[in-house]
Amino acid sequence: MSSRTFSRLVRFVAGDGKTYYGDAILPHGVTDVSKALKAKLIEGDIFNANHNVTEKIMDIRKLLSPLALEDIKTVRCLGLNYAQHAKESNMPIPKFPVVFYKPVTSIAGPSDPIPVHTIVQSDPGLDYECELVAIIGKEAKDVSEDKALEYVLGYTVGNDVSHREWQLKKGGGQWSLGKGFDGWAPMGPAIISPKLIQDPQSLRISTKVNGKTMQDSSTADMIFSVAKTIAFLSQGTTLVPGDILFTGTPQGVGMGKTPQQWLNDGDVVEIGLEGVGSIKNKVAFSQTKAKL
Q1: Which residue pairs, CB below 8 angstroms and at least 24 apart, start in 11-14?
Q2: Exposure winner among 51, 176, 195, 228, fewest CB in 10 A?
Q3: Which processes are annotated in GO (biological process) (predicted)?
Q4: 14 pLDDT exceeds 70?
Q5: How far is CA 7 from CA 18, 24, 84, 88, 139, in A?
């Protein structure tokens, strides 16, 4: 048994049909963790620095969301956190972080479909947002910006799926409803340790829809860095292990294009982050009828 902590944390269904946490093993020359086929089994609490990456190698049959729902506490998100995105949205650069929440049920895995309920199918406005996601690894309260990254368990990539009609009009002035439907926060394929990503503000991030590049930017364009965000959010509020922070999206969203380009049933959205890998999710319009 090894005493070292993880490098690339994955949660996966193994050959025996059971779900495990593991440390992904990348094939030679591969950097995208979504391509991993094997992982070393992790024993113990992943939020405990004494968890163990064992030498037991297991096959990966399917990669799941890198955190189980029961291990997630809150899903906090930033809006308008890239300078160029604020510009394309015709909104002023915010002086303070614009924070909203998604429910835990919005979390989905790196290859899960994006379910679109019938209640939101009647209006155009379904949009994608590639985002760097930071996961809190230990309790943080009143932390300083220069110490903030010490509280990060690791980084992954996510899609802050949004419906602009519901976000801006039907949400009653609050954004959460138009961004918080089930499965509207796919993330993965792994949580990358800060020992591998020492500077989260220098990563290329991108979105492709049906193979066409829609967003292609750098986390250097963030208005509030990960460190600034954690320091700000922790003032008077305790961040706990399992808190998830979606940190905003760069320019290139469908809402900002001329003409606007919305997602449709069957579209495939692929989002990538340098040093992490990619998630690939297919839009799936539901046939479920609203219960009124």
Answers
A1: 11/63, 11/64, 11/65, 11/66, 11/67, 11/68, 12/39, 12/58, 12/60, 12/61, 12/62, 12/63, 12/64, 13/60, 13/61, 13/62, 13/64, 14/58, 14/59, 14/60, 14/61
A2: 195
A3: oxaloacetate metabolic process
A4: yes
A5: 22, 8, 32, 36, 21
Q: Which residues pair with 190 in a beta bridge?
A: none
227 and 192 within one domain? yes
CA distance 260 to 82: 19
Q: Is residue 129 part of a domain?
A: yes
Q: Is there a contact between 283 and 126 (Cβ–Cβ < 8 Å)?
A: yes
Q: Which residues pair with 114 in a beta bridge?
A: 283
Give the domain range for residue 41.
Answer: 8-63
Q: What CATH number is attached to the domain comprising 242?
A: 3.90.850.10
Residue 38, classified by CB atoms within 10 Å of its CB into exposed (0-12), middle (13-18) or buried (19+), is middle
∠ CA 168-171-177, rounded to 5°: 105
Structure tokens at 237: 């509020």
Residue with tokens 């909104």: 91
Q: SS3 for 62?
A: strand
Supply 7's token pair.
């490098």
